[in-house]
Amino acid sequence: MAEEEDYLTSVSDFECNSEEEEEVITKESLLAAQKEDLCKVMELLAIKEQHARAVLIHNRWKMVKVHDMIEKKGRERLCLEAGVVLATEDDAGGVGGLPTSSTAVFTCNVCFDDVSPSQSTTMDCGHTFCNDCWTQHFIARINDGESRDVRCIAHKCNAVCDETIIRNLVGERHPEIASCFDRFLLGSYIEDNDNVKWCPRIPNCGNAIRVEGDTYCEVECSCGFEFCFNCSREAHSPCPCLLWDLWVKKWHDESETANWIVANAKPCPKCRSIVEKNGGCNAVKCRCGQYFCWLCGGATGNAHTFTRIEGHSCNSFTDEEMEKIKVAGHKSRRYMHYFKRYKEHVDSSKLESELRKTLMETVAKLEDENSITVRDFSWVMTGLQRLLRSRRVLSYTYPFAFYMFGDEFVNGESANCCKENKQSLFEHQQQQLERYVDKLSMYLENFHPVTDGQILQTRFKLTNLSNTIDTSCERIYQCIEEELLPLLPTPEFIAPYISDGPEKAMKSSTFSIE
Asked: Is-contact 28 22, C-beta < 8 A?
């Protein structure tokens, strides 16, 4: 326990609130979070803690799956598949223990040395080897990062080795590796748990989030970072994880810029400057005065005919090459269209987030005014929250549209016809939302009423517009989920729309470390 407590100072507080679906796991009580699930399985299956851990690791720490497997396969089969041997106390071995019938010198079947019973160990599965071979096996597995599931050294034996034996044998010679083993066991609650993930914020905050239910959701860590729980990237709904991942890679690789350069520009053979071709003639002149052939890039003279360039012989410019340029140019212009609009909304969101301080100062002044009777200004900050949320939704609709309405995923005559109709509906809803969002942004940027009448009028406008925007966002999500995602060749999902943004993972102090 002392080693586990030491680890808590360097690794992750489980805070549980039964009314919340997202919970924060921080460094102070990761052990308590893990202990809770372990105790449930220990009680359910009447097994030891280390065996409960093996069962949970095998089932990705999913209690629901453990219950299902008990009903389908029974207790014995469930434990067997997890590598747990349900042995009686008389059958169980320990450090330096041998089967009760063994009294003579023991020959290890790994190193073939003769050792005394005190220098050998028998696992729950009944296999006995010398302590040196066991220790070397354990150290190798731990160093390979497989310490959460250390199996018996015997050939074709699937039994999980006793944690206490591992800890004691390794700790005698290498205390630091034994400590590493404890850290891996504790960390498995997150690393092997599909419903728990580290917050991906950089620099790392040290928190993790546990989600109950659907993992296609967006959450906000207690550090303030919002992320998609399914892919651990920044929150990107309503763009599915697959399309967002492709967008991020394209953005970072600048592949479209590279395509455009390849199709429309080449280096001068003399000064290596990039030259863009703006005509059909293959004799191109650089700013440095050098002429060269566009097709092969070789230096030439300045005189040319349809079939020959002075000092150079090359094929004439073909329709196929022209078509390649047109296709590459179209793809690049299409990407830039969607990227510009995505970037404009992202930049607007950053500027609008700075409105918070200004609005709070304006509201504070209004609350101090004795000439007005209105005192509730919560609707102002609600309007700002709705603005920021809808602006983010708008920005992510463009990466989605870039792939959804391109040729990469949805193809075929009937599919394209269906896609075109749905694209018109989507873009109409997108345009409506943009108009509403810009209008709300304008209202908030110019918020400075001075009389009761102006305040009431502004509140009416902001409240109605906020509700309209909320409805528009819901319609876009519905259109994507019901009309567009089914057109993709593989099933894709998005996090549900929430008016106020990703759910905040809450903290409490239900658990304590003993």
From this structure: no
Instruction: Write b or e for each residue in 8-17: b if 16 or more Cβ atoms lie within 10 A of its Cβ, otherwise e.
Output: beeebbbbbe
Q: Which active-site residues does the annotation give? A: 281
Query: What's the confidence (pLDDT) of residue 456?
Result: 93
N- to C-terminal Cα separation, the chain: 9
Spatial separation of the C-alpha atoms in residues 430 and 416, rounded to whole Å: 20
Is the separation of the CB atoms in 235 and 44 below 8 Å? no
The per-residue pLDDT for range 394-450, each reduced to its tens digit, is 999 999 999 999 888 876 665 667 888 899 999 999 999 999 999 999 999 999 998
In this structure, the strands spanning 208-211 and 503-504 are unpaired
**127/241 Cα distance (integer angstroms):** 47
Tell me if 61 sits within 8 A of 193, measured CB to CB. Answer: yes
Residues of the chain with pLDDT under 70: 1-21, 27-29, 87-103, 254-264, 278-282, 295, 302-322, 324-325, 328, 411-416, 506-514
Identify the helix (H) or strand (E) that includes residue 130.
Answer: strand 128-130
The H-or-E segment that residue 120 falls in is strand 120-122
User: What's the pTM value of the predicted model, to 2 decimals?
Assistant: 0.71
Residue 184 in contact with residue 3, Cβ under 8 Å? no
Omega before residue 203 within 30° of 0, cis: yes
The three-state secondary structure class of 464 is helix
Q: For residue 393, give the nearest of 235, 241, 263, 256 by alpha carbon.
A: 235
Q: How far apart are CA 163 and CA 158, in angstroms?
A: 15
Q: What's the burial of 121, exposed, middle or buried (CB within 10 Å: 0-12/13-18/19+)?
A: buried
Domains observed in the chain: 2-197 (3.30.40.10), 262-317 (no CATH), 341-502 (1.20.120.1750)
Tokens (6 digits) for 83: 């590598």
Q: What is the dihedral of CA 12, 13, 18, 22, to 10 degrees?
A: -40
Of 151, 161, 247, 147, which Cα lies nearest the Cα of 191?
A: 147
Contacts of 256 (CB under 8 A, 6+ apart): 250, 331, 332, 335, 336
Q: What is the pLDDT of residue 205?
A: 84
Give me the residue label for tokens 């894709």.
492
> In DSSP terms, which residues pair with 257 in a beta bridge?
none
